[in-house]
Amino acid sequence: MALEIRHLPSFFGTDKSNATVFAEIIRFYLPPGQGRRILDATAGKRRFWENVQSSLFNPSAPYDVVFMDIKDRPNMDVIADCQLLPFKPRTFDAVIYDPPFGGKGQGGMARGDFTYSWQENDVSYGFDITTAQLEQMTRRFCVEAARVLKRGGLLITKCMDLGRKFIHIEIINWLPHFRMIDCIIYAVSTDKPLRPYTRRNLRQSHKLHNYFQVWKRRID
Fold first, then answer.
1. How many domains does the chain have?
2. 200 lies in some domain
3. Which of 94, 96, 99, 194 lies 20 to 30 A from 56 at CA?
4. Which domain holds residue 127?
């Protein structure tokens, strides 16, 4: 019997965004139509799901998704902190984690003013403090994600470069309850004010490296 080998599609092209890449990943690792229950633990504005299913809240949609955020956003299912998930053990087939990379205003993460969506002009670049805060939160989330995932469940994380900090490498040590099975690297071209190293409001094109990582829950 021949072994069937499946591959993720290539992500080259000018039309790629977080939503287009995420749609390919979720359909590849969790094919629709199998009653998959998914927790988006840091849902924000639910932009990842724009290309996955047209009606996110339709009972006949291909995925049963629970949208959770720390902020009281429109159409959010659960308002809670990802560091303390209000769900019973072994509840979900997959968990999505897109941690905050900044807080409102300069030094936002240093103040603990987290936001679960990366937004233009809303990023703190205090690298040392930011990385420490992000690690602490991710380690706490790791314990909770492992608890609510079914045996062999998947964790899908999203991160990006923070200056000289390569979070997609550092996060490997922050998630001891999981083993990484895939890392999808892509670049999103943007046209927005660059803020890391200057306060001048200069508009210029640049590329931001993004990473989706797929993890398998370790068997306990």
1. 1
2. no
3. 99
4. 18-185+212-217
CA distances from 49 to 26, 37, 56, 98 (A): 10, 14, 8, 13
Q: Please give the model's pTM, rounded to 2 decimal places.
A: 0.77
Tens-digit pLDDT profile for residues 103-161: 444 444 444 444 443 333 333 333 334 677 788 889 999 999 999 999 889 999 998 76
The CATH number of residue 121's host domain is 3.40.50.150
Residue 132 CB partners (closer than 8 Å, separation 6+): none
Tell me whether residue 114 is in a domain.
Answer: yes
